[in-house]
Design brief:
It is a single chain. The protein is α/β, with parallel strands linked by helices. It is built from eight helices and ten strands. The protein has helices spanning 49-58, 84-99, 116-127, 160-182, 207-216, 260-267, 288-306, 308-311, and strands at 4-13, 16-25, 32-38, 62-66, 104-114, 133-137, 191-193, 199-201, 247-252, 273-278. Helix 2 crosses helix 3. The mean pLDDT is 94.
Length: 312
């Protein structure tokens, strides 16, 4: 594996400073391809994405991780605001920034996104034919229709009535938060993880994961603006079939966030795609031996697409 070095960087996105870290192979004698990584819902660049970026950089690729505006080390207020459109703009500006970095081959820029970020990279690739390759890890391409058919855990599922009440509470919180945004008042936050009806994720089996997240991610906070529920990504027919870049989709067989079967059906529209599936849940894709296997498969795909002349 190749030694690499990292450097803090920043770029502007609609006037707001977005913080990032650029990974570059230490001994590269020529410009290298670069992977721009987009993390998932409420995520910050100090957890999960560095593991993948380090693996890619050790494999001879450049990598750029960054925080969306309002999150982590990036600027922007209100804090913890999740906006699909603004995050996609930040990703587009991150790509433009990577193209201008020393030692990076502007003609070989790839995208990697996970969960909500996986949906972002697919959308950008559909509109940017210059993207050289795309990896979408458990992508959230439609958080409404994609919820039907997702995996369930026996004994951990709320009843239909409990689900209806929880949904009503979340939508009520989202309405209050949206009104606060219109009136330029402080956000009406909810938790990312917590009790049913008061948080985005409430599965008790995730308790340990989020405890670890709080311990290991200094900039992450367990709160988010629920107005996101009104602007969550929705699948639009005719978008994915515009992706010309080679695409790898890595799925969790037992994904409890979005149906893997749904993703398979929609990704079939992409002309040049591969799908790999792993016998785990959504969040297990980020940890332990499974994460190492997923990252290795993704690196092999990107080296094949971006550095084929070196691996023949």
């Amino acid at each position: 594996m190749t030694e690499f070095h990292t450097s803090p960087v920043s770029f502007r996105s609609e006037g707001i400073r977005c913080a990032g870290v650029l990974y570059r192979p230490a001994s590269a004698r020529q410009e290298v391809p670069c992977v721009v990584l987009a993390h998932g819902f409420s995520g910050t660049m100090d957890w999960i994405v560095p593991d993948f970026a380090s693996r890619f950089a050790a494999g001879g690729l450049g990598a750029l991780i960054f925080d969306y505006r309002y999150l982590g080390a990036s600027e922007g207020r209100p804090r913890k605001l999740i906006s699909t459109s603004r995050q996609r703009t930040d990703l587009r500006n991150a790509v433009d920034f990577a193209r201008g970095c020393d030692g990076i081959d502007a003609g070989r820029i790839a995208l990697w996104g996970t969960s909500l970020g996986g949906g972002h990279v697919l959308d950008l690739a559909a509109h940017e034919p210059s993207i050289a390759a795309v990896v979408a890890n458990v992508p959230a391409i439609d958080l409404v229709r994609g919820a039907a058919g997702r995996a369930t855990r026996p004994g951990l599922q709320p009843s239909g009535m409990q689900t209806a009440i929880a949904t009503a509470r979340l939508l009520g919180a989202a309405a209050l938060d949206a009104a606060a945004g219109v009136l330029r008042r402080p956000p009406h936050y909810i938790r990312v993880y917590g009790p049913l009806g008061q948080a985005v994720f409430s599965d008790p089996s995730l308790d340990g994961l989020f405890a670890t997240l709080e311990q290991n991610s200094p900039t992450w906070r367990n709160r988010v603006t629920p107005r996101f529920l009104f602007t969550a990504p929705r699948y639009r027919k005719g978008v994915l079939d515009r992706i010309s870049a080679p695409l790898l989709v890595t799925l969790a067989r037992d994904d409890e966030v979005i149906s893997s079967a749904y993703i398979r059906r929609k990704v079939a529209e992409v002309p040049h795609h591969e799908i790999r599936e792993y016998p785990v849940s959504h969040f297990e894709m980020y940890h332990g031996g499974v994460q190492e296997e997923v990252a290795a498969d993704q690196l092999a795909f990107m080296r094949r697409q971006l550095m084929s002349h070196e691996v023949r």
